[in-house]
Amino acid sequence: MELTSKRLRLRPWRADERDAFAALNAEPEMSRYLSPFSRAKSDAMLERIVTHFAQHGWGYWALEERQGGAPIGTCGMMHVPWEAFFTPAVEISWRLSAKWQGRGLAKEAARTVLDFAFRSIKLDRVVAFTATGNAPSWGLMERLGMRKIGEFDNSEFPEGHALRINVVYEIRATDRRPS
After folding, report:
1. Which of 13, 43, 80, 88 has the fewest CB atoms within 10 Å, counting from its CB?
2. Are 127 and 78 in contact (CB under 8 A)?
3. What is the CB neighbour count within 10 angstroms for residue 159?
């Protein structure tokens, strides 16, 4: 399953792209708002992504510039595997290599994924969450038409850690603006 937008190709990650995925996760811009990614953690996440695609036909896609070919980030959806006030849920998420940020590519990719979520697989609702300090990410959530529904403690971080409190946004199929 591949998706395309004006400037991007969204395609499944391949198991042999561990190095590219690990390099994305190791960028300082990524680690500002995420728990640290060891190589083992990055490889395990890529395995979960590949498995999710095998089970559902969709997941976190590798982002490529349509005229390029190398991954420049990731965007997609996965089922939230733990309990919280907003689960069960499917989460949309994005990561874009720092050198590709600021060009509207994350928004373009996220809109493409949301179109797929609501038009193709007929989801009723999609959520997104991030640390409260990650203004670029929750700002994008708002620009996508998502609305804040609350906060939760991210147990990956100890009490008092700057990344412990996360904001949660959602968008419902009935709220979706045409893109």
Report:
1. 88
2. no
3. 7
d(CA 60, CA 28): 21
pLDDT digits (tens, 9 = 90+) for 9-26: 999 998 789 999 999 999
Please state, in angstroms and rounded to a whole number, the distance separating the CA atoms of residues 144 and 160: 30
Bridging pattern class, strands 147-153 and 8-12: unpaired
| Three-class DSSP category at 64 | strand
Beta strands at 8-12 and 60-65: parallel, antiparallel or unpaired: antiparallel
- How high is the mean pLDDT of the chain? 92
* Location of structure tokens 């395609």: 11
Look at residue 4 and tell me whether its pLDDT is greater than 70: yes
* Percentages (nearest 5) of helix, strand, coil residues in the chain: 35, 30, 35
The position carrying tokens 């998420």 is 93
Q: Is the dihedral of CA 61, 62, 63, 69 positive or negative?
A: negative
Q: Please write the tens of the pLDDT for every residue from 134-159.
A: 999 999 999 999 999 999 998 888 89
All residues at 6 or more sequence positions from 125 whose CB lies less than 8 Å from its CB, including other chains: 89, 90, 170, 171, 172, 173
CATH tag for 3-175 (out of 3.40.50.2300, 3.40.630.30, 3.40.50.800, 3.30.830.10):
3.40.630.30
Question: How far is 104 from 141, CA to CA, in rounded Å?
Answer: 13
